[in-house]
Amino acid sequence: MLSFEQARQAILENITPTGNEQISLMDAVGRVLAEDIDAPWDMPLWDNSAMDGYAVRSSDCSTIPCRLEVTGYIPAGALADGIEVMPGCAVKIMTGAPIPKGADAVVPVEETEAISEEQVTFNEPVKTRQHIRFRGEDVLAGERIMAAGTIIRPPETSMLASFGRALVPVHRRPIVAILSTGDELIEVGRTPGAGEIVNSNTLALAAAVREAGAIPRIIGIARDNLECHRDKLQEGLKADVLVTSAGVSAGERDLVRIVLEELGVKQVFWKVGIKPGKPTAFGMKENIPVFSLPGNPVSSMITFEEFVRPALLRMMGHRQVIRPTFRAVLRDDVRNKESDRTAFLRIRLEREDNRFYASTSGKQQTGLLKTMVNAAAIAVIPPGRGFLAAGEEVDVHFFGNYIDLLEEGR
Ligand code: AMP
Ligand code: MG
H or E segment at 291? Predict the structure, then answer.
């Protein structure tokens, strides 16, 4: 049986980024750039004023107060062609407007006193080059502004927009087929009768796929017979990724792995040393990753989080595919039966005096959904730890992107 880390490694070794697509910059936030981008021109493209004020020759202003004759005006958007600041003169200028010939400094309007339309005085010393943004000062033409693999956030959007990139090459978002299996399942919206269970996994997994930035495609429910499994799994294999839930334990009705093999999926592993989630299987059909997650709602969500999400992120070009972990102090003793496996504890997380504290979000049986709802984070307990005492530090990571689930300390 593979360890948690070995299993995740085995998955990631099989995953490569999906192809590229050109999308509108408007839609690109959160996506990952698929090509390097170099600056097509200098930025700024010409020397321009950083302030509303007066363009001057700094040598004219060596003694203050200094009085100059105003000989011109350059608003933003105007050209400075034909305008020159002559000795003893100043040109009124707006932020962003081009610096006229002769000028080597801008005096902000706040530091001036206009005697008339034609005359201005200032009382502050003037330094050469002050309040001018020089051509290429930010970026030089040809400079690498963004490497492939960069996540497009608002700052990257601003940079790309500044260089006129209306379309950007990004990694495609994979389509993830989601298939639930089981004769006991009924669709959401109906009230379950005796022996019936609402198919919550499909929607939970679809939500997780969306949250990761990929595109869910719901295949529905495969009933516990070979025909239905063949039919639905085949349909699922038309997507970029297939995720199934349930039917992957060792029960006689657990048909997922049998039919996947029949359909040409090469199993990479089945069963991992984790708790919950031991019966998880992973395989590849050519370049389509196939994740067979356990049916238990908690197990399917945790195995999605720990195995499927990193794979989807890698497919979308992300470099950091595993959530950062940090240390938190246990509030309570933790007893870990079957400690030969890595345990994922569902925890609440508090911060007090700049330290993080983990407390259980409820009983840790995998059947209990409320504990999952109340959990902000997951503590990852390595194998071999049957008992952890309150006060010990453990590795934790957020579950989801919701840092606001962090509570204020008691
Ligand atoms: P199985 O792996 O098929 O034995 O399922 C394990 C447990 O998960 C059983 O209690 C199932 O009823 C439950 N389960 C399976 N599939 C789903 C689903 N789609 N939604 C909610 N619970 C499920
Ligand atoms: Mg079943």
Answer: strand 288-293
Burial 11-46 (b: 16+ CB within 10 A, else e): bbebbebbebeebebeebeebbbbeebebeebbbee
* Ligand 1 contacts CB of residue 197 (under 6 A): yes
Instruction: Indicate which atom in ligand 1 lies nearest the CA of residue 248.
Output: 2
Reading phi first (left if > 0) and then psi (alpha if -120 to 50, else beta), residue 209 is in: alpha
Q: Which residue has the tokens 């948690």?
A: 4
pLDDT tens digit string along 186-208?
Answer: 999 999 999 999 999 999 999 99
Q: Residue 10 above 80 pLDDT?
A: yes
pLDDT tens digit string along 286-321? 999 999 999 999 999 999 999 999 999 999 999 999
Structure tokens that stand for 141 in this block: 């033409």
The tens digit of pLDDT for each residue in 32-87 reads 999 999 999 999 999 999 999 999 999 999 888 899 999 999 999 999 999 999 99
Yes or no: say if 245 and 180 are a contact pair by the CB < 8 Å rule. Answer: yes
- Phi/psi for 379 (5° steps) reads -95, 135
The strand ranges marked E within 78-198 are 89-93, 105-108, 112-114, 119-122, 132-133, 144-146, 167-171, 175-181, 185-186, 197-198
CA of residue 185 to ligand 2 center, whole Å = 9
Pocket test for ligand 1, best of 178, 179, 196, 201 (most atoms within 8 A of CB): 201
pLDDT of residue 82: 93
